[in-house]
Amino acid sequence: MSFNRLGWMVLLGCLSISGCTLTPPADNTSLGHLVLVKPQTTDGRFELEVAKLTEVISKESDQLEAETMGQLLYRRGSLYDALGLVTLARIDFNRALDYQPRLADAYNYLGIHYTQLSQFNYAYESFDAVLELEPDHPYAYLNRGIASYYDQRFDLAVDDFNSYFAAQPSDPYRAMWVFLAEMEQAPTRAMENLAKARLEHGNDIWAWGLVDLYLGVMTESEFLQSYVTQGLSADETLAERMCEAYFYLGKYKQLQGQWQSSSVYFRLALSTNVHMFLEHRYASIELERSQQHVDAQRSE
């Protein structure tokens, strides 16, 4: 579904003048249009590289310089992470920092893992270390913002997400994270800012369709039928696309208070096995949150 510039200006004007918060259209048939995908399989090349790195680390550790050893451990940790072996990954990231204490990317991974474990103080320390070592790190503001979001420190989350958004405002995912954090504080302002971002920075990236969905410009069924399989790039799998789509559809359902449907979407995001994507990493947290609401509703 297309929405021209004039339409977006009308929408933005409605939000600014009336102060209204758009209510996405109810759509009880959307689950019938689900795109189900085969879980992403393990990349055998990753496993082979892990085996080779393990052999080098085991046999040549006494002969390697500290910087080289740190890099090898970091590389194996990132491979473990991609394979979903997060405990082994965390061990290697910590060991890598023993050898190379200024390895910003290792701190970034550790911050993500601590966020997943809800160990937020450790997460903040890790992301602060990233920004101290590498102020222009491409993902530290996003990841620290996510830690603040799940720690319910929404003012800090908004600040970090806005910094991340400002670096590349044409990226719809950045606009959505700003929106999700702002919705926890000022829903009307969140909708206004999201509509403004869509008007000023929207492009042909498929995920702007999610923004349209959040703004109520299209229904859930229209999104599922028209956007989720559109324009897959050569280096993108359907499982990767659907991991993202399922996650943000789950967030959309949460905003509507449809906790059972959101649980379905987060389970589907987890089922894709796209371990490297942040949407897969945090789907378990979101699933637990949605399930708590479902259980509370059942006990009423």
TrEMBL record:
<dbReference type="InterPro" id="IPR019734">
    <property type="entry name" value="TPR_rpt"/>
</dbReference>
<keyword id="KW-1003">Cell membrane</keyword>
<comment type="function">
    <text>May be involved in cell division.</text>
</comment>
<dbReference type="GO" id="GO:0009279">
    <property type="term" value="C:cell outer membrane"/>
</dbReference>
<keyword id="KW-0677">Repeat</keyword>
<dbReference type="InterPro" id="IPR011990">
    <property type="entry name" value="TPR-like_helical_dom_sf"/>
</dbReference>
<comment type="subunit">
    <text>Homodimer.</text>
</comment>
<dbReference type="GO" id="GO:0005886">
    <property type="term" value="C:plasma membrane"/>
</dbReference>
<protein>
    <recommendedName>
        <fullName>Lipoprotein NlpI</fullName>
    </recommendedName>
</protein>
<keyword id="KW-0449">Lipoprotein</keyword>
<dbReference type="InterPro" id="IPR050498">
    <property type="entry name" value="Ycf3"/>
</dbReference>
<keyword id="KW-0472">Membrane</keyword>
<keyword id="KW-0732">Signal</keyword>
<feature type="repeat" description="TPR">
    <location>
        <begin position="104"/>
        <end position="137"/>
    </location>
</feature>
<dbReference type="InterPro" id="IPR023605">
    <property type="entry name" value="Lipoprotein_NlpI"/>
</dbReference>
<keyword id="KW-0564">Palmitate</keyword>
<keyword id="KW-0802">TPR repeat</keyword>
<dbReference type="GO" id="GO:0046813">
    <property type="term" value="P:receptor-mediated virion attachment to host cell"/>
</dbReference>
